[in-house]
Amino acid sequence: MSQDRRKDWDTYFMDIAFMVSTRSQCHRRHVGAVLVQGKKLLGTAYNGAPMGVPDCSEAGCMIVEDYELVTAAGKEEMVKKQRCIRTIHAEQNLLLFTDRIDREGSTVYVTDEPCWTCANMLANSGITEVVFHRAYPKDSLKVSVMMAQKGIQFRLLEDYQPPQETLMTIQN
């Protein structure tokens, strides 16, 4: 590949996040995350069960249902949310396995928009930017509002095309 056709940095790091996501054994969603400071890759992580514990492919998902009061178009309604509690999210693993000093002023590239819990953790982690590709509509509005309140740049890579070998069917 010639110099003029080299990938831009967002594409390069998001490609890495998608490759990392292929390590996940989750049947519902493969998520990968990378920590970057400047142009230096500092860490990678994916969603899965704690080390040494059977994952969803071995023991099945542990689905719980939550209900959340949501206001849309001036109307309040209860929305049912399902989530697997067997797995640690990619963003959480990234924070567990990187140092605070490395996170200060850094960017997190993550395949999927962070959920509310991960967004809260990222907001207190020292990072200054989150870049993601796939939206997570269940928490999107409140996460984007909180990121703006914290002054964390929050970007969706809309025109990005993940490497074909990393794609899976997403189950919500």
UniProtKB/TrEMBL annotation:
Known cofactor(s): Zn(2+)
Binding site for Zn(2+): H89, C115, C118
Protein's UniProt keywords contain Hydrolase: yes
Alphabetized Pfam families for the sequence: dCMP_cyt_deam_1
One of the record's GO molecular function terms: dCMP deaminase activity
Domain CMP/dCMP-type deaminase: 8-159
Keywords, ordered alphabetically: Hydrolase, Metal-binding, Zinc
Transmembrane segment boundaries: none
CDD domains cross-referenced by the UniProt entry: deoxycytidylate_deaminase
GO CC annotations, alphabetized: cytoplasm
Coiled coil: none
Catalytic machinery residues: E91 (proton donor)
The keyword Chloroplast belongs to this UniProt entry's keyword annotation: no
GO biological process: pyrimidine nucleotide metabolic process
Family in the record: Belongs to the cytidine and deoxycytidylate deaminase family.
Official protein name in the record: Zinc-binding CMP/dCMP deaminase protein
The organism of origin for this protein: Paenibacillus algicola
